Amino acid sequence: MEGAPGTVQVVGAAIVDSLGRPMRLLAARRTAPPAFAGMWEFPGGKVEPGETPEAALHRELAEELGIRVQLGREVAAPEPGGWPLNAKAAMRVWFAEIIDGDPSPLEDHDELRWVELDDVERLTGLAWIPADFPILEAVRAAGCA
Ligand SMILES: Nc1nc2c([nH]c(=O)n2[C@H]2C[C@H](O)[C@@H](COP(=O)(O)OP(=O)(O)OP(=O)(O)O)O2)c(=O)[nH]1
């Protein structure tokens, strides 16, 4: 599904240790661009023309982290295009569990960290991209449901 016209469609993964009983979330620290370098995010990226959002997410996770995942449910977002990131972009986020590979920061990240979902202080204490905080809250709420 395409996002709203003129909107850059971004996809991200809330990678958890187990889709059935998520306890930990994998946070990734960006290396670029300078405005986002050092900030934590949901690994993912932009959907390319002709690509489905799910295919884009699988591609990005393979490129960036060297993993294959099983996607779980989508983290319900306030708009069909997903979570607003800025004036031009919105991100849809899916839960995901690793089914192959050991995640490593191959591209775009310099550190990966598993964080307990119920350790709110530690999780929200990371310097996430500001637009990600509401998403993080929804991930926690959905994951702990
Ligand atoms: N991947 C990701 N991007 C996010 C998050 N939060 C957030 O505001 N963004 C923004 C940063 C970027 O402006 C945009 C995603 O771009 P990207 O740089 O990850 O996309 P990409 O891998 O396809 O990169 P490129 O081809 O444009 O170089 O969305 C997040 O949690 N994950």
Describe the 3D structure.
It comes from Sinomonas humi. This is 8-oxo-dGTP diphosphatase. With 145 residues, the protein is of the alpha+beta class. It has one domain (21-143): Alpha-Beta Complex (Nucleoside Triphosphate Pyrophosphohydrolase). 21% of the residues lie in helices and 34% in strands. It has three helices and eight strands, in the order ββββαββββαα. The chain has helices spanning 53-65, 120-125, 133-143, and strands at 8-15, 24-30, 40-41, 44-46, 68-74, 83-84, 89-100, 109-116. Strands 1, 4, 5, 6 and 7 form a five-stranded mixed β-sheet that branches. Strands 3-2-8 form a three-stranded antiparallel β-sheet. The model has no long low-confidence stretch (mean pLDDT 95). Residues 10, 12, 36, 41-42, 44-46, 60, 85, 89, 91, 108, 129, 131-132 line the site of 8-OXO-2'-deoxyguanosine-5'-triphosphate.
